[in-house]
Amino acid sequence: ARLVRGFLAVVSQRAVSYYSGMGLYDRDYAQDTEPGFHLNAPQMLTTQLVLATVGVYLLQIFLGPTFTNRFELTADWYQQPWNVYRLLTYGFLHDDRSVMHIVFNMFGLWTFGKPVEQLYGRARFGWFYFTAIVFSGLVWSLSEMATPGPSGAAVGASGGVVAVVILFALNFPHVKGMVFPIPFPIPMWILATGLVLMDLSGALTRAGGVAFTAHLGGALFGWIFYQTGWTPESWFNKLTGPSRPRKPNLRVVEPDDDDATESQVDEILRKIQEQGQESLTWRERRILEKASREYQNRRK
Length: 300
What we know:
This protein is mainly alpha-helical and 300 residues long. The chain has helices at residues 17-20, 45-63, 65-71, 86-89, 99-120, 122-146, 158-171, 188-205, 212-228, 232-240, 258-275, 282-299, and strands spanning 73-74, 153-154, 176-177, 186-187.
């Protein structure tokens, strides 16, 4: 399944204006790698997912249809329960007849995945992305079983990518992006709404051989996660007991001291990186809002 091309022409000011406004990507702990030549692996899970998906795509090209057929998702997978792994593996496959399929999906994942990962933390983002792929596959499978006629196979990260886009839009609805051919920026909530409506229309008409219902499944899971924070990790935590949250090393300083405020912002952003946005207190959120406004004013 491929993401709607027009929407993934989005240039949403790097889709991170909220965080870049606070200088998040300039801080050492938010960098993928240190500057200079080195062979270290990228630190962000988003980048690792992009590289892994591209690697699988190359395997598809070199190994041919046999490889793809082994890991794609078919609607009747449940008849042979040992094929349940396909609910995840199909999300790393793409149409090897069209390079644009993987290009658009990986552009969307890299653009929107980075700020979402920074917001929720590496571990929760990983759970979110993988669960979104599985959830999208389940929705597609159910829709295919409910529809008369033969069904094909689903491949592509589109369900997971749509979930990431929707989650980004829910957290930052007023960040503006551009979509071809509209010549002016549009808030993310409008772009996300348009994406869902286009997928809904495609699902109703079943046009173009695209798994629109997988897209809709991804959008639905993005909303569920935003509202509840649920992933399978939540079940594991209930079974094993939640881990004790690490107490952030925050310093109390005078808010009028610019250096002190910068130090506070660093500490709070580290906390987001490690524990996610929901771990912030009301006071920490106010500090981030104040720092963001001050930074934007200095740039004017």
